Structure formats: C-alpha cells, structure tokens
Amino acid sequence: MEGLDLSVLTILIFFPAAACVGLFFMRGTQIIRAFTFAVFALELIFALPLLRFRINTPQFQFVERLTWVKGWGLEYYLGIDGIGILMVGLTLVIFPLCVLCSWSSITTRVKEFHFCLLLLCSACVGLFSALDLLLFYLFWEATLIPAYLIIAVWGGSGRQYASLKFIIYTLAGSALLLVGIIGFRIEGGSFSIPELMGRDFPFGFQIWTFLVMALAFAVKVPMFPFHTWLPDAYAEAPTAGSVVLAAVLAKMGAYGFLRLSLPLAPLASQTLAPMMIVLSIASILYGGMVALGQSNIKKIIAYSSVAHMGFVTLGIFLFSMRGSQGALLQMVSHGITTGALFMLAGALYERSRSYELRHNSGLGKYLPAFMGFWGFMAFAGFAFPGTNNFVGEFLILLGAFEKNIWVGALVVPGAVLAAAYMLRPTQKMAWGEPSNAKGWKDLNVREWAYLLPLAFLVLYIGFAPTLFFKVMNPTLNNLSVKSKGKPLITRLATNPGVTIGDSKLNIQERKKP
Amino acid sequence: MEFRPDLIIPELYQLLLIGVLFIQSIADKPWMPRVRQWLPWCAGVGILISVGSLDLNGLIFVGSYRVDPLSQFFKFAVSFGFAVAVLNATRQPTLEKEKHCEYFMFMALSVWGLMILSSCVELISIYLALELASFSLFPLVPLRSGEKRAAEAAVKYIFFGVAATAIGLFGFSFILASQHTTYLIDLMQKPWAWSEVPMAVAGLTLFLCGMLFKLALFPFHFWAPDVYEGASNETSAYISTMPKLGAVVVLIRLSMLLKPGLEITTILALFAAISITYGNLAALVQTDIKRLLGYSTIAHAGYVMVGLTAGTTEGVAAAAFYAFIYVIMNFACFWVVCRLATDGRNLKLDDLNGLYKRAPGLALVLAVGAIALVGLPPTAGFMGKLFLLTAAWNHGYNWLVVVAAANIAISIYYYLNLVRHAYTKDAAESTPTAVPYPFFRLLWGGFLAALLILFGIFPNLVFKALPPT
C-alpha cells in the first residue's frame, strides 16, 4: 500500500490535464459534458486514498519528491497537511458540480469550455499540494489563462473588460511574488517550503518578502482595497466561472497566507498583523455595505464574498488558535455557500435571462424548491446558527474579542450587515410584487443533483465540524509554534481553541492568570 | 597551434550551402530543383551536423577562434533558427520568383556570419563576423515586391547599422590604444574601471554600441519597429530573432570583462531596465502586429541583458537559454502571422479576430507563443525568465530584477491582446471563413509550440547542451 502513496497527488494533478487530450476526439456537446463529468467523478475516486490521511500529525503526508532541474534547485515536491487536504477536498467537490451547473447554460464552444475547466482543476489541485515554492508559483500562474478564457469567452456582456481587469490585477499582484521567491532561494538556499520553514530570516528580509507575498495574496483573496476587479469578474463570468473563482481561486490567496506568509516570514507577519487586521475589517464592513446597495444578484454575492473573505484574513492574522481554526473552516464554508449561491443565481438566469432583482421577484409561489434552496443558502451566508458559516465566523469573532475588544466590536456590524444584505434580496425574490415567475419551471433533477450535496455539507459542517477540526488542529498548532513570536505561544497556552476530547467539542474558557 | 578543419564542420557545411545557392543564383537552369524544394532539407541536415559537433573543443586561427560548448550551442541554435526561417520563407507571397536564390543566399550568408561570430574571441574577428552577419541582412529588407515602405525600412536599417558599426570601430581603436591587445583572454586580465583606464572604458562602451544595435536594446532600438513593419513578414521573422543570437553570444564573451560594480556594467543594467520598460509601454498601444512584436523585441533584449549583468556563469547560461527560447517563441508568433497573411500584407490585431474558428491550430500556436513571451508557466518563456532573475539576484542589481519582474505584469496586456483577438472576438462578415494552409505548415507551427511547452517542463534538455554552470 505504501507504493500507492507515492502517486496519489500526482494522479490528482495530472489526470484532468491528461483527460483534456480525450476531448479533442469527442463530438457532440452532450458527450463532452458527460465525459468531463466522468473525469471529475473519477478524480474523486482517485482521491479515495487520501482518506488514509493521518489526522494526529502535523507532518506533510503523501509526499513525493523528485529533482526537476538540477543546478537551479527546482524540485517536484508535493505533499499535503491538514490545511492542504481540506482545500484539495473542496476543489474536488466543487469541480464536478461546475460541470453540472453549466450543463445547459454553456451552449457555444462547449469543448473549449470543458478543456479550460479540466486545466483549471489540475492547476488548483497542484497549487494546494505544492511544497516547492516555485511549483507553487507555477500552478498559481497556470490558473490564470484558463480562468481568463472562461470569463472572456463565455461571460456576460461586459466580459472583455472584466476578464482583462481580472488578469492584469492578478498578474500585477503576483509578478513581484516571483522576486520574493527568488529572494528565498538565494537567502535560504532552497525552494522547498518545509526546509525554509525552519530558517530564521533577518527581519528586513522578512518584511519585504511578506509585503510582496501579501500583495499577491491580497489581490487574489481579494482584500480591500485590491478588490475592485472582483465585482466585475464575478458578475460577468459564466456561472461555473463565478463558482470556481469564488469557491476555489479566492482560497488560493488565503491559503497562500497560511502556507507561505505565516511560516516563512513569522516575525514580519506578527509585526504587520495590525495592518492586515485593519484591511480585513475594512473588507468586512465595506463589502457588506456595498452589497447592501446592489440590485444585481451576482454583484450582491460578489461583494458578500469580499466581506466573507475579510473574515478569513482577519482570522488568520489574529494569531490565536480560534482565529486560525475559524479562518480555515470559513474558507471551506465560503466555498460551499458562495458556490451554491452563484449556482442558484445561474439557474435563475436561465429562467429570467437577467440577474437584476426586479426581473426576479416573486418566485416563492412558482419556484418553491428554488426559493427553499436560496433561502437556506442565504441563511448560511449570514452565518445562521446551525449552518457552516456560523461555526467559522463565531470562532473568528471569539478570537477577535480575545485579541482586543475594539477589534471584536468593529466586526460585529459586519455580521449584522450580512443578515441585511442577504435577507433583502431573499425577501424580494420570494415575495416581491409583481411576480415575474409565472410559468417558470421549478428546479429539475440536474439542479437538485448539484445543490443537494452542497446543502448537505452546509448542515454537516454546521452541526458536526468535529472532523474538520480533527484534521486541521495538528497542523495549525504546529504552525503557531513555528511562528516564533513570543506573544503567540503564551496566548496558545491560555487559549487552546477548539479541542476534541472524547469526541466532544470543547471551547475552553479563558484561564484567568 | 595547428589548423583543424574538423572543428569547423558546421561552418564549412554552411559555406557549401552558400556556394550552391550562389551558383544557382547566377545560372538557374531548368533541370535544377527549385530552392524551396531542396533548401529546407539541407538546412535540416545542418541542424544534425551542428548537434553532432556539440562536443567539440579547441582553439584555431592563431587563438582568435574558439570552439567550445558555448559557441557550439549557439551554432546549433543558429542552424535551428535557419531551418525554421527557411521553412517559413519558402512560399513568400511578396518575393518574386527570380529573386528566391539571392534571398536565401543572403540569408545563409548572414547565418554563416552568426556562426562565426559565436566562436570569435578576438575583437577584430568579432568585428568582421558581425559585419558579415549584418551586411548580408541589409539586402533582405527591401526584397518585398510592391511596397515602398520596404525601401524606406532598408535605408533606415542600413544607416543605423552602418553608423552603429562605425561607432563600434571607433571605440575599438580606443581599446587597442589603451590596452594594447585585441584578444579577449588578455583583455580579461586588464583593469576596466573608469578611474584606471578611462579611455578603454569609453572604447568598450562604444564598441558595445554595435552589439546593442543588433540586439535592439534601448537606446539603439529606434530602427526595430519601423524595419519590421517595412520588411516582409518572413524577413521580419528572421531579423527579429537570429541577429539577437549573434549579439548575445558576443555579449556573453564580453561579459567576462563586465564585472558587476563597474561603471559600464551599471550603464548596461540601466539600459536593460529602460529597454524592458520602454519596449513594453510602447507595445501597449500598437495595433500592427509586427510593430507590436518589434517593441516586444526591445523589451526582450532588456531581459537578456539582466542575465549578462550578473557576471556569473549562471547568468551567462540563463542568457544563452533565454536567447534560444526567444528565437523559438518569436518564430512561433511570426509563423502564425506569415501563414495568416496569405497575400503578404501587414496584419492588424483585428485581422486575428475569430482565428479560433478559422484556423484553430494556428490560434493555439499563437496562444502558446504569446503566453511564452509573457513568461507564464508552463512554457519555456517562464523558465527562461526565472533563470534570468534568479541568476541576477544579489549580484548588485536587485532593482533591475524588480523592474524586470514588474514588467511581466505590463506585458501581459498586449500579448494577451493577441490571444484575446484570436479567441474571444468574432470575425467580421467579410473575412474568409477558413485560412488555407497545407497540413505540413501547421505541423511545423505546432512543433514550435510543442518545443516551447517541452522546454518549459524539461528545461534540462537545453541546459545539458549549455556550458556547465
């Protein structure tokens, strides 16, 4: 069985890319769609060996390491830990659903569309399992062109502008990341992330590498004030494009913070944490307020995404166990909830040919199942207790209040705003007068099929997040110990976050000194 | 030091080709096969010969001609480029039938000059080889039937070229006067600081002008976009790629003199930074594809210089790698342009509209070429940039690395424009629905694109051939 270990991640990365070749020989749009779906389903089956992931160790697992380019120190180095496996899992769940949700909405150039989806999946899995800085960068950039094409070819009326803005922003953000990576190679002597994690880099070096990395990741997340590409890109992209952008690509940024910024530049992360916290809170409040004022459903979801990802970055830079647990869980939750919301918006568009609220009002009577799902996901979107987002946001809020009562106090309006901006469209869509929905058909089997798994995950994480904490805890613990700042260690000792004892969740009381 | 003809087999073979072309050009008999029928095959044999001579080593012609891994790698790159250029140019629509022989003879002569250039380690022979490579290029530019701009471009090219070489020669006299030798190996031992030998530094700077002109580095770049626009598509493809190889190899030889920290190296680094930024910014607003690629050439000249300013063996290897890759990626883009312009006119960006439908294969080649020129993975363009930047980091010019990296973000706009027009815009009603091209033509373009991806994933294939780092 050990032999199998060696190739799981490689198969997961290269199987979709290799399957692209098969598309060249396909004729008929239905066959192409079915083929792509089968590839993603097979990919899920190939991922089964990942279930042997050992949850009580922070070490990288399923490691593969080969020399790639001698003399320049390039390695093909893969492995996943508690953070990576969650992200890989999220990617693998979202992509097959993307095929389903674009089944009837993508009617032109079907082959190229699925070609792009397959390539994108490869790049995403690769990114989340890369342990070599350069490999990370390579997959990071490799997502750009397929994502660009998905927006630019199959997007809405403003797709040209939106796609160009998207790619220029992202590339401008990550161009200097390359310099940072080269800096690590020269300063640390290696591209390997685990090896660099043990090094003690000079403070000045940490500061500039942190800033360079933060720029790349902040654009991708995106954080205020680097978010301006997002509403355009999310709103103009086709449904599957929005889903992938929000559910997977946005996570690349947050994942970058966890995987690179914190372990490689721990001192700088601590020093610059206040800045990141301020930006995160700005994202939460700004995203929420702008979302409240939108009349386009996709833009509402897009801006709500800015706010949610603000919670994630806030959690990461609180430097407490609860904060990072919340952030990581929120990453997964946001992928599921926002993905589902975008899919629902796409399903609605197929009926009304519009994303405007006023063209989509009064659906409750005619599309009960659709409204049921929408309402459910909207509740999850503003972190109603019992849904997945609640667990994450609650932990982050808890962490924020521990850090500083004012930080917590500033975040609370964000949570309230979320309820407002999610309930407003929900109300209009369900009961708005006059109703546009006369004669529309309710959800069909295919739409049920891609919404149900997500709805299940929403409830599962909402009620029983234990498994997720079990997976992430050792890694996050290790990460915090690796961050060399002293305050963190004492904080960890007093605030153990969510621990799992006898399969019960305990959020432990803060011990008064 | 005896003369060993076995060391210069690639050069002799090329000379043989030139001879045959010459004979055919003065006496074209009906029984002779047409040039386009035999030359591509012979150029292909040339690649094999240069691959076979990759391992040669030696010093001939009284120490002025060095055959080493570096020179042999460049000879291989040059003969590879020659084969592609010949294939690209055989069915040129704007070249009269009776001028075919002359056209290819001059091209072969220029290639011969580049081959010799890559082995020269002495200033006079460098100068002569450079002249051979340049002068045989001058007649190629105006060979475009029914185009006034071609003549204008040729005049510009000649005047700029001649002025640059004259300045180079002038600088050469300074070097000789103050350092008393023309052998690079001896020049290496001499000081090159402004405070010690101002005359030699001034001389070397002037001498470099000749090289920088070939490379189209700022501030010697003015000719590039105009000449590309005026010359025929196929000629531009050649001019924008091959002479760069010659310039890079000479600069690599000279880079032994250019230690980081010297004034002259700083000047070169400055030129490189301006060249990258200026080329990219100017390319942003171009609508003529050849002008766009012309400005991109200027930017890429700057990228190559990044590796050379490092002054290390790694930097040299990175520059050599990049120059080779640049030839492939530029040829890939020009290949598409030449195939699309069936009547030999200059293409605008709008002419690419709807290419994915009219010629999906060509659209894919163009996309790979453009993405490689940006420097995105998984293409060889990315690896090339990575090696350049890695080699240059912490060798005194970190700001240059930052400028070079930041420019990747600027350049994406105009390279992506090529992809955008080809893939996301639909063609106007009037454009013909399908581009006629023979299968083999597509195959060669696909071969170039495949090479770009192959070398992007396995850069070792090229590095093995490079001098050990």
Describe this structure in words.
The complex is a heterodimer of chains A (513) and B (469). Chain A is mainly α. A two-stranded antiparallel sheet of chain A has the order 1-2. In chain A, strands 3-4 form a two-stranded antiparallel sheet. In chain A, β3 (498-501) and β4 (504-507) form a beta hairpin. Chain A has one domain. Chain A has helices at residues 2-5, 8-23, 29-46, 82-101, 110-129, 133-142, 144-154, 159-188, 193-197, 203-220, 229-236, 239-264, 266-292, 297-317, 321-352, 368-381, 388-403, 405-431, 445-463, 466-482, 486-494, and strands at 61-69, 74-80, 498-501, 504-507. Chain A is built from 21 helices and 4 strands. Chain B is mostly helical and 469 residues long. Chain B has one domain. Chain B has helices at residues 9-26, 35-52, 69-89, 100-117, 123-135, 148-179, 184-187, 198-215, 223-230, 233-239, 242-254, 263-283, 289-310, 313-340, 355-358, 360-374, 380-392, 398-423, 439-457, 460-463; strands spanning 58-60, 65-67. In chain B, strands 1-2 form a two-stranded antiparallel ribbon. The relative contact order of chain B is 0.09. Classes of the chains: A mainly alpha (513), B mainly alpha (469).
The number of domains of chain B is: 1
Mean pLDDT of chain A, to the nearest integer, reads: 85
Using only CA atoms, what is the Rg of chain A?
A: 22 Å
The count of β-strands of chain B is 2
The first-to-last residue Cα distance of chain B is: 28 Å
Q: What is the typical, i.e. mean, pLDDT of chain B?
A: 86
Residue windows where pLDDT falls under 50 for at least 5 positions of chain A: 1-5, 484-494
Question: Approximately how much helix is present in the residues of chain A?
Answer: over 70%
Termini distance of chain A? 49 Å
Low-confidence stretches of chain B: none
* Total helical segments of chain B: 20
Task: Please provide the count of β strands of chain A.
Answer: 4
Biggest pleated-sheet summary of chain A:
2 strands, antiparallel
